[in-house]
């Protein structure tokens, strides 16, 4: 194969395109202006004949670059899936004919829109190159699971069941985690009336018997280097020995710790050995060996036990948990049943405020508790007073009175806190121009007391980034398993509080994602949301100023730095968001099929009519994950879009280069609309930080506008969700109105 | 009756809920209430009484024996069945209300001057005499339950209604003197007595 490029254009005349537009004019634009060496029309390009025509040209005529002018790039993806060529799509259907009224007086502007989209596509295509692999990819099917509790064991068993070897790294001397201390678990099977076996012993046995699973006890992860497909991990044992293993993907299942109620004086946790947490109760019951449960202080058989719910949870107080673990009430019901089974006529009272029994078992298990004469009282506990008999003072919220009860044992329902490593972004990362400052910054940074779990050898910190309260960050709606480190998955209570059943489901999901990540890495393909994408960012070293913007701003910590401060891109750690590309002040980062140049060329090749034509041009940069699909959907619904708009999809608003804005303002565009996803705490950005980064950078656009003496209203940034089907077109149309009000840009040639 | 009360207090010292389970009709349902308050919100009369069904059930669990058994609430229930139809936990609330009323009465703890409670007693006594209800006597007993003066006032107020009923032959003044009875009044009385004995024995035996 020669390196020669061959450009071919294809225009579909189906779906009404041929009726509404002039295909021969489009064809001549593609060949004359767009410099396509050939251009063919087809009445239904996506049918097998049309697709075959393109295939044949690729095979017989050595076509390397394909421009398809038909429907949206989000439609007919399967049909137009030509992996070995550079491909672009001009959106004539959703982008033009469906958003413009079919009437003679609109014909001229509609055709102009289509002409521009063909020009843009051809120009984009000319600055693209064929995607080629990096040569970095490696297939390693072994999965590392950190943590040997219920979640970790399940993940390893599931991976092995799918034929993928797994290594469990467990800090303690045995598998089982916290669940190993439990007598029984919340029932998962109908009729949901009795606590059931935890299954821990059976899981341990099945792991021991499984050739595909290797267990490292008393071990921790001393260092994790590399990337998906080629993680190199130092596993340190207590004795000091270190073994190095390689893995394709990683699952972190390090579970949770229980909240320590010592600081909550009213519950008297430290004042009596008979006031214990729900975690400690399991151990106490275990020690009873099936006989009557005895209280710790004097070994007296418990005749009355009070469960105080929601201790230090759902609180706005400092030092307490702002969230609720969700399963504490189910645990209390389960534990009350221990007493009903082992202590005969023992009074068991659950003092709750909002009783929550989620999940399949929930309501039935609650009923079962009531049938067993567990007393449920809606009450707010104000104080637990230590003594031979403990006094629990509470406000009865139904009878609206202050009252109290006596108990031999008080069990506090404390919340689950994720056992996560330090958050890499707890202290905002600074871009420091010289090394001396770095050292100063490091000295000033507060000392992190939490030990690292993964010890990642990454530029952006040692562990998985947190969302809130130490729980791992992930795109909770669309990609719940993903973390902000590609190929490393969080599972179990590390992600959110959950019970054993949920943790097992979670682990199975994470195992499947890890397998997928390992396989993708082997093929050099991106993980979500650009799954299957072969392109990856490259940088031109001679232009790089070692400014570190890319290495600091990459939302996924994909880029490391070499000793000289040059970025080291890691293809399989990369999600292809282009945030690095948008960040680079000298514009040296690019993808084969997406770069500063591919978009710049599209911007330049829109025909900007002269001022007296009174045809403004509005540039719309729309995120391909949410805003662009919303516009497509609007088109399907027949919503009109202003004919001055030219929409360019971007991978993420984070990839938007300021130069695009400056250049388009300079070349006479009258307005610019940027559409990205929601940012902030409840972000929707598929690339987590991309949209936020873009908003930050766009803060600087004001300077550009004022230096050009242009009105600030000409550039607007919006957060648009995929459901904003009505709103997205309206935002564009609003800009058209704004332009009408403030007048055309004086920068037209 | 207060003997029975003392006996019951002794027997269920630790748990009024257990006492209710054992002795009150449908009492074993009380523990299943989840305190959602739907019954309290559904009862057309609930807010006119001392306690809603929800509150009564919570009081039973909280061991408030005195307050529950002397409450007027269960006497005020009109058996509209709204609460039963709506209770998400399927409690036969209406029946529990009547069960509680009955139990309180049996123990001699029901509120003395509570009108429905008084009416129930009058109705019962009236019925037991002849084996069927003597409406004239029943009406008059009701009028005069609060004394002679009040009785005259009540009777005068309803004079017209009474005359109309007599005209329509729905009521006969002759009933005042003896009145109809069923064929075997003493047989019925024996039957009822036996039934009461069985019930008493059951409660006594509930230790
Ligand atoms: S494309 Fe995105 S994920 Fe990849 S290196 Fe650049 S910023 Fe990081
Ligand atoms: S942002 Fe650009 S100039 Fe800065 S380090 Fe990265 S590649 Fe180099
Ligand atoms: S509706 Fe039923 S469950 Fe709800 S408070 Fe009333 S009795 Fe209890
Ligand atoms: S049946 Fe009685 S307690 Fe139930 S709603 Fe009707 S009046 Fe109220």
What would you say the CATH architecture of the largest domain in chain A is?
A: 3-Layer(bba) Sandwich
Structural class of chain B: mainly alpha
| The first-level CATH class name of the largest domain in chain A | Alpha Beta
The main sheet of chain A comes to: 7 strands, mixed
Cα radius of gyration of chain A in angstroms: 31 Å
Within CATH, the superfamily of the largest domain in chain B carries the name Alpha-helical ferredoxin
What distance lies between the first and last C-alpha atoms of chain A, to the nearest angstrom?
A: 43 Å
Number of strands of chain B: 0
The class by helix and strand makeup of chain A works out as: alpha/beta
- Looking at how many chains there are and whether they match, the oligomeric state comes to heterodimer
Work out the strand percent of chain A: 15-25%
Number of strands of chain A: 29
The helical percent of chain A reads 25-40%
Number of helices of chain B: 13
Number of domains of chain A: 4
The third-level CATH topology of the largest domain in chain A is: FAD/NAD(P)-binding domain
Small-molecule binders here are: iron/sulfur cluster
Query: What does the largest sheet of chain B look like?
Result: none
- Form type of chain B: globular
Query: What CATH architecture label of the largest domain in chain B applies?
Result: Orthogonal Bundle
Order of strands in the sheet with most strands of chain A = 13-19-14-15-16-17-18
Structure description:
The complex is a heterodimer of chains A (749) and B (207). Chain A is built from 20 helices and 29 strands. Chain A is of the alpha/beta class. Chain A folds into 4 domains: 1-130, Rossmann fold; 143-255 and 419-423 and 450-523, FAD/NAD(P)-binding domain (3-Layer(bba) Sandwich), CATH 3.50.50.60; 266-415, FAD/NAD(P)-binding domain, CATH 3.50.50; 608-749, Rossmann fold (3-Layer(aba) Sandwich), CATH 3.40.50. In chain A, the strands form 8 sheets. Chain A has a 7-stranded mixed beta sheet with strand order 13-19-14-15-16-17-18. The longest helix of chain A has 24 residues, at 500-523. Mean pLDDT of chain A is 92; it is low at 435-448. Chain B is mainly alpha-helical and 207 residues long. Chain B has 2 domains: 2-110, Alpha-helical ferredoxin (Fumarate Reductase Iron-sulfur Protein, Chain B, domain 2, Orthogonal Bundle); 115-196, no CATH class. Helix content of chain B is 60%, strand content 0%. Chain B has helices spanning 2-11, 16-23, 38-42, 53-61, 65-69, 73-76, 82-86, 93-106, 115-130, 135-143, 148-157, 159-167, 185-205. The longest helix of chain B is centred in the last third of the chain and has 21 residues, at 185-205. The mean pLDDT of chain B is 88. The A-B interface holds A 347, 355, 366-367, 370-371, 373, 375-378, 396, 398-399, 403 and B 14-15, 17, 31-32, 34-35, 54-55, 58-59, 61-62, 64, 89. Bound molecules: iron/sulfur cluster (4 copies). Residues 42-43, 45-46, 53, 77-83, 93-94, 97 of chain B line the site of one iron/sulfur cluster.
């Amino acid at each position: 194969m020669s390196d020669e490029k061959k450009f071919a254009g294809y225009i579909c005349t189906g779906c009404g395109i041929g009726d509404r537009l002039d295909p021969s004019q489009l064809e001549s634009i593609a060949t004359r202006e767009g410099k396509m060496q050939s251009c063919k029309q087809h009445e239904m390009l996506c049918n097998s004949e049309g697709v075959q025509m393109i295939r044949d040209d690729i095979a017989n005529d050595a076509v390397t670059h394909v421009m398809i002018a038909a429907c949206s790039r989000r439609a007919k993806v399967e049909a137009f899936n030509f992996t070995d060529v550079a491909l672009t799509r001009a959106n004539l259907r959703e982008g033009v004919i469906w958003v413009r009224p079919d009437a003679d007086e609109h014909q001229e502007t509609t055709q102009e829109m289509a002409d521009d989209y063909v020009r843009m596509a051809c120009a984009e295509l000319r600055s693209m190159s064929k995607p080629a692999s990096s040569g970095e990819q490696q297939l390693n099917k072994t999965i590392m699971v950190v943590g040997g509790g219920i979640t970790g064991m399940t993940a390893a068993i599931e991976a092995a069941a799918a034929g993928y070897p797994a290594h469990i790294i467990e800090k303690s001397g045995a598998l089982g985690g916290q669940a190993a201390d439990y007598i029984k678990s919340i029932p998962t099977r109908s009729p949901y009336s009795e606590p059931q076996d935890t299954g821990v012993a059976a899981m341990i046995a099945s792991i021991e018997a499984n050739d595909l699973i290797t267990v490292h006890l008393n071990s921790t992860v001393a260092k994790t280097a590399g990337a998906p497909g080629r993680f190199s991990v130092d596993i340190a044992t207590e004795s000091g020995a270190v073994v190095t293993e390689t893995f394709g993907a990683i699952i972190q299942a390090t579970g949770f710790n229980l909240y320590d109620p010592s600081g909550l004086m009213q519950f008297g946790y430290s004042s009596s050995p008979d006031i214990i947490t729900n975690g400690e109760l399991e151990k106490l019951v275990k020690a009873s060996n099936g006989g009557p449960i005895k209280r710790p202080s004097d070994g007296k058989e418990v005749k009355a036990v009070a469960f105080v719910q929601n201790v230090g949870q759902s609180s706005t107080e400092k030092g307490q948990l702002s969230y609720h673990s969700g399963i504490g009430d189910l645990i209390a019901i389960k534990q009350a049943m221990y007493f009903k089974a082992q202590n005969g006529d023992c009074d068991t009272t659950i003092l709750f405020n909002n009783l929550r029994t989620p999940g399949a078992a929930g309501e039935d298990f609650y009923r079962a508790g009531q049938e067993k004469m567990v007393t449920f009282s809606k009450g707010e506990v104000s104080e637990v007073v230590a003594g031979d008999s403990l006094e629990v003072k509470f406000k009865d919220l139904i009878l609206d009175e202050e009252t109290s009860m006596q108990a031999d044992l008080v069990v506090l329902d404390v919340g689950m806190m994720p056992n996560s490593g330090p958050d890499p972004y707890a202290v905002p990362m600074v871009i420091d121009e010289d090394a001396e400052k770095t050292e100063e910054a490091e000295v000033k940074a507060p000392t992190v007391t939490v030990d690292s779990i993964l010890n990642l050898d990454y530029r952006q910190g040692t562990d998985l980034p947190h969302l809130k309260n130490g729980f791992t960050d992930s795109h909770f709606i669309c990609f719940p398993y993903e973390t902000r480190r590609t190929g490393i998955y969080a599972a179990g209570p590390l992600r959110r509080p959950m019970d054993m059943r949920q943790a097992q489901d979670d682990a199975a999901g994470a195992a499947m994602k890890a397998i997928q990540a390992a396989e993708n890495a082997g093929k050099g393909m991106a993980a979500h949301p650009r799954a299957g994408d072969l392109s990856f960012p490259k940088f031109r070293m001679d232009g790089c100023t070692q400014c570190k913007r890319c290495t600091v701003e990459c939302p996924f910590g994909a880029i490391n730095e070499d000793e000289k401060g040059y970025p080291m891109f890691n293809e399989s750690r990369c999600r292809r968001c282009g945030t690095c590309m948008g960040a680079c002040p000298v514009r040296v980062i690019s993808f084969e099929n997406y770069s500063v140049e591919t978009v710049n060329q599209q911007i330049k090749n829109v025909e900007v009519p002269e001022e007296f034509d009174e045809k403004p041009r509005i540039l719309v940069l729309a995120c391909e994950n949410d805003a662009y699909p919303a516009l497509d959907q609007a088109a399907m619904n027949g919503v009109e879009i202003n004919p001055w708009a030219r929409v360019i999809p971007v991978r993420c608003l984070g990839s938007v280069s300021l130069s695009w804005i400056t250049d388009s303002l300079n070349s006479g565009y009258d307005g610019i609309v940027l559409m990205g996803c929601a940012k902030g705490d409840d972000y929707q950005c598929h690339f987590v930080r991309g949209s936020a980064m873009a908003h930050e950078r766009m803060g600087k656009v004001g300077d550009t506008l004022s230096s050009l003496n242009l009105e600030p209203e000409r550039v607007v940034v919006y957060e648009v969700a995929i459901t904003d089907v009505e709103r997205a077109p309206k935002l564009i149309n609003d800009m058209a109105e704004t332009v009408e009000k403030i007048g055309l840009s004086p920068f037209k040639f | 009756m207060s003997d029975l009360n003392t006996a019951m207090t002794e027997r269920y010292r630790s748990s009024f809920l257990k006492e209710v389970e054992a002795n009150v009709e449908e009492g074993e349902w009380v523990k299943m209430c989840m305190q959602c308050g739907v019954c309290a919100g559904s009862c057309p009369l609930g807010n006119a009484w001392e306690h809603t069904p929800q509150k009564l059930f919570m009081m039973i669990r909280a061991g408030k024996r005195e307050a529950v058994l002397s409450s007027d609430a269960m006497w005020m229930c009109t058996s509209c069945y709204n609460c039963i139809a709506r209770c998400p936990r399927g409690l036969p609330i209406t029946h529990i209300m009547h069960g509680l009323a009955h139990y309180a009465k049996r123990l001699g703890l029901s509120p003395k001057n509570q009108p429905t409670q008084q009416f129930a007693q009058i109705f019962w006594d009236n019925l037991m005499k002849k084996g069927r209800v003597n409406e004239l006597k029943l009406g008059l007993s009701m009028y005069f339950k609060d004394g002679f003066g009040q009785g005259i006032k009540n009777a005068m107020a309803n004079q017209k209604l009474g005359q109309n009923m007599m005209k329509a032959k729905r009521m006969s003044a002759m009933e005042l003197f003896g009145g109809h009875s069923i064929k075997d009044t003493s047989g019925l009385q024996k039957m009822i007595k036996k039934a009461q004995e069985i019930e008493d024995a059951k409660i006594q035996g509930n230790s």
